[in-house]
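Recap from last week: sequence in, structure out.
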Amino acid sequence: MDHLPTTIHQQVERTMMNPMEALQYSPRKGDVIIYNDGSYTEIMQDLRKGSPSVKAKFHALGSEPSEISSHVPAIRKDMIQGKCHLCRKEVDDVQDTPDSTQE
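Predicted structure tokens:
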């Protein structure tokens, strides 16, 4: 990427997935693939061995979410080209408290 003026662009530049990571991407249930046009795909199941696609829910502005079969090599290609980005909740994210009595 060329010189990016804003801090948001600098953060995106630091967190972009390199091509080798994108080629090894294996979808997990709960992953969200965010596209540059604002649409996103929520992965509904883990990738099964031997299957090139996963069940997902596609969301776009102005339309109802639709269940689709998302082709994993196409997702990887789009990640390498910078057309989409992975949003994955990490195990150590602590935004939600596990016990509802603690707040």
